[in-house]
Amino acid sequence: MSTAVDDDLWSAIGDPTRRRMIDLLLAEGRGTATTLSAHLPVTRQAVTKHLAVLDRVGLVRSEPSGREKRYRVDEAQLARAVAQLNSVGEMWDARLRRIKSLAEAIQRERNTDKQADKQRDRQPEKRSEK
Question: Where in the chain are the domains?
Fold first, then answer.
């Protein structure tokens, strides 16, 4: 299973209405544009367009059912999306750990410099005698 980031897939998932449609299809198992539009604040035509986007990236599959199509989530493609998300999350976790490590090193260096300055301030000045 590839974890390379698929921009088209993430663009499709990035829309909140499409995410809600995926949730509804997962909960119900299958659905049509008509049944989905009953649960969404968009028209049936808008639902059909969103389903076309999800179908194009492989997140849903359709099968004819009378005058309509019944859609279901393609679980293999959804698993691929989850794997990509986990991969991106791990990459950002590593970046954030590195940033934290650098920030802590800078802070330690500043604390060391401050301590050295305090010690210098406490030492009496040496006068040179002639």
Answer: 7-77
DSSP label of 41: S
Place of tokens 């969404």: 40
Contact 72, 30 (CB under 8 A): yes
pLDDT in tens, 9-64: 889 999 999 999 999 999 999 999 999 999 999 999 999 999 999 999 999 999 99
Q: What is the DSSP string of 66-128?
A: TTEEEEEE-HHHHHHHHHHHHHHHHHHHHHHHHHHHHHHHHHHHHHHHHHHHHHHHHSPPPPP
Mean pLDDT of the residues in the chain:
89
Q: Which one-letter amino acid corresponds to residue 49?
A: K
Locate 77 and state its tokens: 């493609």
The CA distance from 16 to 9, in Å, is 14
Tell if the pTM clears 0.85, that is, is over it: no
Decide if 76 contacts 43 (C-beta within 8 A).
no
Q: Which amino acid is at 67?
A: R
The CATH number given to 7-77 is 1.10.10.10
